[in-house]
Design brief:
Blueprint: E1 15-17, H1 20-31, E2 36-38, E3 45-49, H2 53-63, E4 72-74, H3 78-82, H4 90-99, E5 104-109, H5 116-119, E6 124-128, H6 133-142, E7 146-147, H7 162-169, E8 176-178, E9 189-192, E10 199-202, H8 208-215, E11 219-220, E12 244-246, E13 259-263, E14 274-277, H9 284-300, E15 306-309, H10 317-329
Parallel strand pairs: 1-8, 4-6, 5-9, 10-11, 12-15, 13-14, 13-15
Antiparallel strand pairs: 2-3, 3-7, 4-7, 5-6, 9-10
Helix pairs in contact: 1-6, 9-10
Bound molecules: threonylcarbamoyladenylate (TXA) and magnesium ion (MG).
Length: 332
């Protein structure tokens, strides 16, 4: 099993155990319009009442997120999610049957009751039904949609355990519900079904090949810098503080002791530096679980000044990890 590494000195005192009592405290805060850190199967979210504009504004403020980047609304089940859509195409129902609850977000035309702040004024809304038991418990007890972006400051590394949420957001969040390490490790797949053809806005926890097996070919949105096709398509994202170099192979990595290197599989690793293997057995799911955690650990490691990574095999979750590596490494 994969054990979470807890960086010393980064334990926030607002972390509470994911017990029924912890869930009740989280729900009480949410009802007051406050925000809480919440585990999901993908990454930890910064959750607030999705129908309360004041709570939504607080999420943007704490994350330092630009208002043009809309939020995902989380619901306990598909019926509740689809009530927030103005219309639900057959493809959405089929995908919901196959992948909800789980790491898939569907973008659909929005219903009138969804606040403009949640969608950044767009005519569409992003909907997701998470499978994590603590997310489910909070959603069911709260009984309303939860807006929950990843619980990091805008553009930074997504947190996959409670201490990482504390390190990112600290005292700005009154309560972080501790659900251990996230079992998927990267964010949900975001699929736009509001147009003529399904459009992949973000590769993520459900491999796009599995979606195509249900709805046929899916178009890919390209990351652009100045005028994002979709709001979350900014090229620079998921960024460590230290420079990250994406190289073609381990032979392109300089042999230096202050290199922090992410490798994958059984290929020989560089001789020098701090080496972290995302999955020595070549398992892309294990690599996804480890990805943000290892990136954060190398970023925090005082021995390391520069980060290096080699792209993973470009299929399944490897595509989703490569997309994140590409944006984390962008120097724009
Ligand atoms: O796995 C996840 O999805 C996590 C957990 C916490 O559920 N949440 C998450 O949220 O990753 P966030 O805010 O970090 O990413 C949401 C993405 C952004 O890229 C945003 O631009 C996109 O979804 N998005 C949200 N609403 C949209 C819309 N109406 N049209 C297009 N893209 C949208
Ligand atoms: Mg995010």
């Amino acid at each position: 099993m994969i054990k979470p590494e807890q960086p010393p000195g980064k334990q926030a005192n607002n972390v509470v155990a994911g017990t029924p009592g912890g869930v009740a405290r989280a729900v009480k805060l949410l009802r007051e319009g406050q925000v809480v850190g919440l585990p999901t199967e993908t990454v930890y979210g910064l959750a607030g009442d999705g129908l309360n504009p004041a709570a939504l504004a607080r999420i943007f403020e704490i994350k330092q997120r630009p208002l043009f980047d809309p939020l995902i609304l989380h619901l306990a089940e598909a019926d509740a999610a689809f009530r927030l859509a103005a219309c639900v195409p057959d493809a959405a129902r089929e995908l919901a049957r196959r992948f909800w609850p789980g790491p898939l977000t569907l973008v659909l035309p929005k219903a009138g009751l969804v606040p403009d702040l949640a969608t950044s004024g767009l005519p569409t809304v992003a909907l997701r039904v998470p499978i994590h038991p603590l997310a489910q418990a909070v959603l069911r007890a709260f009984g309303r949609p939860l807006a929950a972006p990843s619980a990091n400051r805008f553009g930074q590394i997504s947190p996959t355990d409670a201490p990482a949420v504390g390190a990112e957001l600290g005292a700005a969040v009154p309560l972080i519900l501790d659900g251990g390490s996230c079992p998927v490790g990267i964010e949900s797949t975001v699929l736009d079904l509001s147009g003529e053809k399904p459009l992949l806005l973000r590769a993520g926890g459900v491999p796009v090949e599995e979606i195509e097996a249900v709805v046929g070919p899916v178009e890919r949105a390209q990351a652009v810098l100045d005028r994002p096709l979709a709001p979350g398509q900014l090229r620079h994202h998921y960024a460590p503080r230290k420079p990250l170099h994406l190289v073609r192979g381990v032979n392109d990595i300089p042999s230096r002791t202050d290199a922090g290197v992410l490798v994958f599989g059984a290929a020989p690793a560089p001789l020098a530096g701090v080496i972290k293997n995302l999955s020595s057995g070549g398992d892309l799911r294990e690599a996804a679980v480890n990805f943000f955690r290892f990136l954060r650990a190398l970023d925090d490691d005082p021995r390391v000044t520069e980060l290096y990574a080699v792209p993973l095999p470009a299929h399944g979750l490897g595509l989703a990890i490569n997309e994140r590596l590409g944006r984390a490494a962008s120097s724009d």
